Amino acid sequence: MNDDHNPLYADACENCPTYDVFPESALRDGAEGIIAGYRCPNCRHVWTCGWRIVPGRAIPPEPTPDSPIFNRHVTARIHEQAAIARARKHLSRPDPDAA
Ligand SMILES: [Zn+2]
Predict the structure, then answer these.
(1) What is the Å distance from ligand 1's center to 96 Cα?
(2) DSSP 8-state symbol, 11
């Protein structure tokens, strides 16, 4: 299968018009997701993006403890996003009272 147009979880910088920024590292987010960390090569903007793991795609390496992307602030955000994801999963369970 070669029709995956984003095999490396590339994302676009929201701070400057740079596309195809590849993740520097990623944290696992539960069994089905990752939080990828990016650093824009042009403006040094850093951000994270949550992805559902796509089978066959290479998962970026785990961040090092001193990674500038996954600092304490971002790590807190990751935990928040993971909590939101869990809550969504919880809320999306079928409602037994629904017709
Ligand atoms: Zn940028």
Answers:
(1) 47
(2) B
CA of 44 to the centre of ligand 1 (A): 6
Domain ranges (residues) in the chain: 25-91
Ligand 1 centroid to 95 CA: how many Å? 43
**What DSSP letter does each residue of 33-51 carry, written as one string?**
EEEEEEE-TTT--EEEEEE
The residue whose two tokens read 């090569």 is 41
pLDDT in tens, 47-97: 889 999 999 888 888 877 777 676 666 666 666 777 777 777 767 666 666
Give the Å distance between the CA of 46 and the centre of ligand 1.
8
pTM > 0.90: no
